[in-house]
């Protein structure tokens, strides 16, 4: 009985105005002090532990998610005040759709409500806000939530001081697949050859043929593209054979029409199809930077720090591509709704300390090298 | 920190007397907690509606106060970092002592039976164990390579004794791939020291290189299992994905596939066949969790284990990792 009374007294004390003011000043002081050292440019959070927190404190799971949202707001405040440029959070995984329908609907509702509330505070966002970006597969989300998302994104798109990436719904493997698909699609677009004269050969031949064959539908156009993809004139036959065996439905209809036109189209096609391969960008120029630029996080600085709460020590399909090199990954035992400056501060300080040590070591080795060069 | 009444009002979007919260009232609740607006934007736009002076008037320069504040920040910063250095050194000393205690308690004595006894109580064992090792290039006379091969032999012996069938060893520079026969011989000798006559069979390979498994492995009598070791390097990480993209781009240019055919299952099948499947447990023997170029695709659901401030490859780290793995729950999104 007395211990319950004591916690009441403590609560009353910490929520009284003087104590509140003092704690607020202390927070400002600590954050201001940390700004002087190296600060991570891009931090990622996995917000894990809402449901466990709700279970431990005997409250509703949805209430746990609400408290999680507040913890997120607190941490964002800390991060942006410390000078972090980009914060990425793992809001919802594609695997989470397997949860109970009630919970998924509740989460979607919460997202919609929070985003529409956000959209009402336009000028406040312009002054302090970060630009919000939503990363993930949009097709899996219901249209009303998509509307709220698009509105919030459009509203904040003008801010350039900081970025908040919300991964919703997101899986890292899906992101890598999309990046690969995007790169392959980019590299499959033929170059338009530079025109020496303002008349394009394809345009002329198309005109002639459309006049000759006015009864045919739009088939000739995809025919031209499939004949352009032939790597050389003599390989045309091979390619038409292989093209007819692909399961791709769109090319099969054009393949059947191809043969009657091939004799007519060969002479004017001779020039472009011979150099058709050089019409495409060379796949050898694809590097990991190309893939990084096609990821959802393109244009952001490299990931410096990844924090996962609730004691789970896995990556769970989050930022696999981005964190595979120098990112410091930190696993914390506390649950997400309890996460605050006091848990995050040691992580930041340790990160700063490690960076300072690394810089000192580099400076020492550079000096040693210079001395070695001078001696020689 | 926010007052209690304001918290509940913000939460439920409703004031204590039942009225719904309007936009302006929400902003008023938030206003004291917002940071000072940055100078450029407050001079450019001057919002006229509110009465609070600090947020509407252009920021008055108070040089003395700013200077004092700055000095205070510098003081606090140096204080924090000094305290932290002391704390880190204490922590390292503590961990080193605990490490030694564990090492003595759980010494394996090169007896597979002891190792088997240690893992008998575990509810599950990883089928595919992965390890990240560091190659110390600054070691004199190639001792870095020797240490690395020693570590590999020890880890292989422990995995074989514990009954883990697949072991993959990641080392960023990939120097071991040039010394596969020698490594195989060293591991063989270590197995002899541990197991005696009934050694488990061993196959050592690296992706894109042929498997090395000399025909002299004994087949008579009880075969206490087989251990296949996979050597990985930084090339098997992002670069493999880049190579796969190049191949897919070429195929798409020739019209053999279309970009819409590329799915996670296709990439998964290709990568697991060419490099490796997904490991269940990844053990890091360094002081913090840094992946150093480990293949990104496979590590999706891998349990990652490390011991803070640990610097060397030790049996107690291995054992603690297995214990931790047995306790971990896989929820897979649910």
TrEMBL record, chain A:
Domain of life: Eukaryota
Gene Ontology process terms (BP): polyprenol biosynthetic process
Stated name of the protein: Alkyl transferase
Ranges of compositional bias, category Low complexity: 225-257
EC number: 2.5.1.-
Lineage: Eukaryota, Fungi, Dikarya, Ascomycota, Pezizomycotina
HAMAP family linked to this entry: ISPT
Family named by the database record: Belongs to the UPP synthase family.
Keywords: Transferase
GO terms under cellular component: dehydrodolichyl diphosphate synthase complex; endoplasmic reticulum; lipid droplet; membrane
Annotated region described as Disordered, given as residue ranges: 215-285
GO molecular function: ditrans,polycis-polyprenyl diphosphate synthase [(2E,6E)-farnesyl diphosphate specific] activity
Segments of skewed composition (Polar residues): 258-267
Record CDD domains: Cis_IPPS
Listed InterPro entries: UPP_synth-like, UPP_synth-like_CS, UPP_synth-like_sf
Automatic annotation (TrEMBL), chain B:
Top-level taxon of the source organism: Eukaryota
Main location: endoplasmic reticulum
Keyword annotations: Endoplasmic reticulum, Magnesium, Membrane, Transferase, Transmembrane, Transmembrane helix
Catalytic activity: n isopentenyl diphosphate + (2E,6E)-farnesyl diphosphate = a di-trans,poly-cis-polyprenyl diphosphate + n diphosphate
Required cofactor names: Mg(2+)
Composition skew (Basic residues), residue ranges: 54-63
Pathway: Protein modification; protein glycosylation
Residue runs in coiled coils: none
Renumbered residue ranges of the record's region Disordered: 32-63
PANTHER family named in the record: DEHYDRODOLICHYL DIPHOSPHATE SYNTHASE COMPLEX SUBUNIT NUS1
Name this protein carries in UniProt: ditrans,polycis-polyprenyl diphosphate synthase [(2E,6E)-farnesyldiphosphate specific]
